[in-house]
Amino acid sequence: MALFAALLSGLLFGAGLVVSRMVDPTKVQHFLDFAGMATGAWDPSLAFVMAGALAVTAPGYRLILRRKAPLAASAFRLPTRTDIDAKLVVGAAAFGVGWGLAGYCPGPAIASLVFGRAEAAVFVVAMLAGMGLFRLRERAASAYSS
Questions:
Q1: Whether the model pTM is above 0.70
Q2: Count of beta carbons in the 10 Å neighbourhood of residue 10
């Protein structure tokens, strides 16, 4: 059941990315180009996509968290940390810079693989390599501090 729910959620999310055109790097870059406001090149349409997502998510969380447990799991697993540390800031900055330069973030890049876009494949490979390097670094730091 949990695997089916994850698959269905992923397919729905991917379809939403395609319909909103967030899989188009040019559209994303035009949204992130605030300097383009002066020339008329700025495309604010993705702000409506994000606002729509928040309009569904905010009340959805309130409704779902009234339950004792999710339908496909024994308990909710929500983040507990609230502090802002250097790893969070550096990670967020790297995400933003990568999104702005490549026009992809992880979800749309993976959804773009369906269309056979070479740049999406390069992005996903680089993303996976970065994740692997991060895990190696974390393991080494953990072993060093022990």
A1: yes
A2: 13
Q: Are the C-beta atoms of residues 68 and 2 closer than 8 Å to each other?
A: no
Q: How many CB atoms lie within 10 A of CB 106?
A: 15
Backbone phi, then psi, for 49, in 5-degree steps? -60, -45
Closest CA to 28 of 111, 90, 88, 87: 111
- 119, 102 Cβ separation under 8 angstroms: yes
Residue 84, φ and ψ in degrees, nearest 5: -110, 115
The domain tally of the chain equals: 1
Nearest to 123 by CA among 86, 143, 95, 93: 95
Could you give the C-alpha distances from 37 to 24, 29, 32, 44, in angstroms and in order? 20, 13, 10, 9
Backbone CA torsion sign across 11, 13, 14, 19: positive
pLDDT tens per residue, range 57-112:
999 989 999 999 988 888 999 889 999 999 899 989 988 888 888 888 898 899 99
Residue 31: exposure state from Cβ atoms within 10 A (0-12, 13-18, ≥19): buried
Q: Range of 105's domain?
A: 2-145
